[in-house]
Amino acid sequence: TTAKPVFGFREQPRQMPARIPLALRQDGDWGELYGRFDHAEAKKQAGRCLDCGNPYCAWKCPLHNYIPQWLELARQGRVQEAASLCHETNPLPEICGRVCPQDRLCEGSCTLNDGFGAVTIGAVEKYIVDAALAEGWRPDLSNVMATGKRVAVIGAGPAGLSCADRLARAGVATTVFDRYEAIGGLLHFGIPSFKLDKTVMRARHEILDGMGVQFRLGVEVGRDVSMDTLLDEFDAVFLGLGSYRYTDGGLPGQDLTNVLPALPFLVQNGRLVSGLHPEGAPIAGWEDHIALPDLKGKRVVVLGGGDTGMDCVRSAVRLGAASVSCVYRRDEANMPGSAREVANAREEGVQFLFNRQPLGLLGTEHVTGVRVADTVLGEPDARGRRNAVVVPGSESVLAADVVIIAFGFQPDPPQWLAAHGVELERDGRIRVGKERSRCGGGCSGATAADTLLPFQSTHPKVFAGGDAVRGADLVVTAAYEGREAAAAIVRALKS
Ligand code: FAD
Ligand code: SF4
């Protein structure tokens, strides 16, 4: 092993893996935008870590990954050990390495941002696990003792999968139920393949199979199997149901033909691209089937500036749209989407129209345009984000053949939760016990939820995490909550 260069970050500039050439992307290439480091590139990029002694990266990572430590193992070429260390904190490292908004999380806090460019933490995390898996690495569960306990996980999204991973490592027999035909939740049915190739999910499925996790796919709890049955047959139940009710904004004209909700558009298209349903037939259990219009040569306008909006604009580019615009009511600095994704979209030819408030959709049968008004930023709202205020008399019309509405998601808890005493917050999120760190350790002014274990619902056998608890958020926070909920379940099963 070569000694770590002290000034590796000076000798070696920050370099992301090569990207698919622009012309191919614009010509409909759905492959993952960023390629993979080869061993030599990964070692060089991992060797840029300064080992600054104050790993803000690890603090800013919601999972508190051991980033400097696995970067050093990667620099030394010890990918199997690095993969094991990655998995100590992160049940889904190769996935987070691909889809985390690193510019806001680990890399955004890297000390080298001070003029040298952050270490490419996400790309190295992806490399470590991909390389180790290719060498045959698998989690070592040889010391795990079966507890004789059984847990049902509802939802095979990142929250449910992370919970299942940790339960399996704790010797708990785990069965994951999901209404869809493949695991991943939004990782499979939402996030497009240019951000996350679906073979990655299949590899993760094999890993979890190998760990003894059972899957019952195509099974909707509440329709195909009842919650009563699960509560009878299992010692605990984890709810990782996600957050799926999309906000439509109530715009006049939103029922016109070729006005599409974002998620069904992405899901349907993803199914076609991945070959899961090449003929685009409706899927059993998928209530949101829409007929996808051909976008070739069309003027596509996407309303909304979050991650979902970015996935829609970049999908529209690959589907051959003549022009793609993104309308967002605030300015670029206040966009919720990752800056990296915005830059990629811009490079692919997407036009951003900031400070525009959509007022309505025009047309008689088919949509023909979007009525918008200019905005200025006003006072901050309750969450500290400045409101967009419409400028009187500034209305204009954007011509459009297809409009995609990407205004975000709200929790849509199933009715059967209430029948089992699982209480909700006012906005529909599942109420769970807080972590001590979040209520200051003492939980003064305690509410009912504060007397519960972290991630335990108001039904003692039922735990929950991910978007169903937080509201629409991130893969890495869902993974964190699944991991922590599993720890709470294991504690509860021991008591
Ligand atoms: P989900 O991933 O939604 O999984 C929930 C699962 O529960 C689903 O598979 C569903 O079928 C299943 N389920 C629900 N009810 C039942 C039932 N009754 N019976 C059986 N199964 C059930 N985050 C990022 O970090 N980076 C990104 O780039 C990013 N891009 C995104 C792009 C889009 C288009 C969207 C919509 C979201 C994106 N996100 C991104 C957010 C991220 O995908 C979610 O925060 C994350 O997937 C939430 O995980 P979850 O496990 O809580 O829920
Ligand atoms: Fe960064 Fe996400 Fe990996 Fe954490 S999990 S180190 S935030 S890429």
UniProtKB/TrEMBL annotation:
GO molecular function: 4 iron, 4 sulfur cluster binding; metal ion binding; oxidoreductase activity
InterPro entries per UniProt: DPD_II, FAD/NAD-bd_sf, FAD/NAD-binding_dom, GltD-like, Helical_ferredxn
Domain Dihydroprymidine dehydrogenase, residue spans: 30-136
PANTHER family documented for this protein: GLUTAMATE SYNTHASE [NADPH] SMALL CHAIN (PTHR42783), GLUTAMATE SYNTHASE [NADPH] SMALL CHAIN-RELATED (PTHR42783:SF3)
Domain of life: Bacteria
KW Ribosomal protein (keyword) present: no
Keyword Zinc belongs to the record: no
Record protein name field: FAD-dependent oxidoreductase
Keyword tags: 4Fe-4S, Iron, Iron-sulfur, Metal-binding, NADP, Oxidoreductase
Cofactor: [4Fe-4S] cluster
NCBIfam families: gltD_gamma_fam (TIGR01318)
Gene3D superfamilies, alphabetized: Alpha-helical ferredoxin (1.10.1060.10), FAD/NAD(P)-binding domain (3.50.50.60), NAD(P)-binding Rossmann-like Domain (3.40.50.720)
Start and end residues of each FAD/NAD(P)-binding domain: 150-482
Pfam families reported for this sequence: Fer4_20, Pyr_redox_2
